[in-house]
Structure formats: structure tokens, C-alpha cells
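Hi R.,

Here's the input for the zinc ion complex you asked about:
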Amino acid sequence: MHSLRNTFHPLARDVAGSLLLASGVTRPARAARGRLTVVTFHRILPEEKLREYPIEEIAVSVEEFGWFVDYFRRHYSCGTLASVYRRWVGGDRPERPFLAITFDDGQLDGWEHARPVLDRAGIAASFFIPVDGVDRDELLWHDRLGYAARRLLGADRPRAEALLGSAGDDRTLVTAAMERAKGLPPEERLAFVARVEGALPGAARPAWDGLMSWEQLRALSRSGHEVGSHSVTHPILPLVDDAQLAREVAGSKARLEAELGVPCESFCYPNGDCDERVVEAVRRAGYLRAVTTAWGPNAPGADPFRLTRCDMDARRARNRAGALSEPRLALRLSHFFPGAR
Ligand SMILES: [Zn+2]
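And here is the predicted structure with zinc ion in place:
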């Protein structure tokens, strides 16, 4: 099964991707006709920073991002989630279907590296912000743990192994630590992250990393980008009590509106986790729509509070020769067959 996945599937995907694009089946104008596609990015980093960044799956290089944006610009009508959603539910059906580019977690690279690419392409995007992270300029726990674990493995191997385990190479240990932390209750998880960070003599995160400031978010908003809410503390919302749920959902909206001076219309569920109670809280707080992490373009009539997205991973857009491939991306975004993800 493994060898099949590694050898047969990439070849099949390349061949199918090329044939389907050439025949027009996966061409966005046809495959995404009438649909709303929402793509997700997390980290946009230049090569030298990418090498320091611990979670490969959620990072693309600035060059890769430029390639994605160029493809979107040529094949879709792009805009903020708020703007394209409004046109889409209004019944507008342009020849190039609607696509919204979204960024989760509010990191500084959105400002430093994604914004210039978007501005050059004349495309406005949506940025989902965890309010507390901005207030404290603190990265989310997975980034903190990733950086700290990696640095500690390099600086003090015995100490690192005592905290992280010793079965495997650095990459395996960092991944295992992430998985372990994910399974812990929130307080224990943060305590574990703090223990790993505390074992280092200096700072865990590189000096270049951090979250956007309120000033930068105001500038983003003024220049036409959308700033939406990604809660206050990025918790798993179905697990919090009603009082915290209200703070996370309504509190973040009020705060963003006070800081930015414009209505905050769109919400993004942390980790994509939502249930009936959470959806109801988001609706009641006055948001007009919300996005999940479930995969796929949205068909007309989609629930505005459970919009699906397509997570963009540059490795999956490469052909078996390692080159960024439009047929592969078209196949993936077409949702033509689920195995193509
Ligand atoms: Zn997030």
C-alpha cells in the first residue's frame, strides 16, 4: 500500500492531471463553475526562514506563494471572503469562478511576505486573527513548541530527550512532541510547552517571527484586505463552557471592531472545530459567515457558517519530477476525485 502511494499515485496523478486539464474537465471555469472556492495558507516564508520553521506542512515559500497567486489570478475572480461571498450568494456567476484567499493565525509573515505578493497581483485577501496572540505578540502553541523542541535538540540533547523522548531522529521527536501536546488538556499543554521553552538558555522563537501588530492590521484593513476573527485564545471551541465561548466569539468581534473601526463579519473556527452550539454562538454574535477546515469548494446553498476550504500545501502541487504543476493544482482544487488531495 505504501509503495503504491509513493510510486503509482504520483504518476497516475500527473497523467490524470494533464489529461483532465487538457480536456478542460479540471479547468476552474468548468470544474468550479458556480462554486465558491476558499483557499487557506498559514505561513509564507522566504527560503532562509523556511529552513528554521518547524512545521513543513503549513508553510510555503514566497516563490511558491507567488506561483499560487498567479494561478488564482488567471483562473478565478479573487477577493476577500466577505466580498466574493456577497457576490456569490447574490447570484453573480462570472466566467472565472470566485475564489477567496485566507490566512489563519495572524503571523507577521502575512504582513511581510504575503501582502507584497498580493498587492502586486491586485488581490485582496482575508486574515483571521487570534486577538490574544496579537495583544501579547505570542505565537500559537504549535509554533512555540516546534521552535523550542528543535532548538533544544540542537543545544542539549540529553535534556531534550528527557522531555521529548529519544526514539527517533529530530524530526520524528518534534512531530511526536506535537502529537503528544495536542492530546493534552489546554493547561497541561501550555505547561508542557513552557517546560520545553524553559529548558533553553535563551528565546525559543527566532527574532524574525511573531504576530502582526494592531497597527499593521489597521493598515491591512485600510488597504482593502479583510481582517476576520479567529477567536481570542484559539481554543478548541466545542470544549469550552458557554461563558468562555461567548468571550471567544463575541469578545473577539467587539475587540477587532474597536481596534480596526470596521465591522468584523467573518469568523474562522480554531482547528476548524465546531458543533451546533458553537455555530449558534457565532451566528448570535452577529457574524455573517464562518469557515471550517473541511476540504472542498462550496456548492450553491452551502451553510454560510460551515464554509469549506482548500488547504494549500505546495508539496501536493508538485509533479513527480518535483516541479510546481498547474495540472496537479487544477486536479486538486477540482475535487474531481478525493484521492487527488
Ligand atoms: Zn488557527
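One thing worth noting: The pocket of zinc ion is lined by residues 104-105, 230, 234, 270 (CB under 6 Å).

Cheers,
M.
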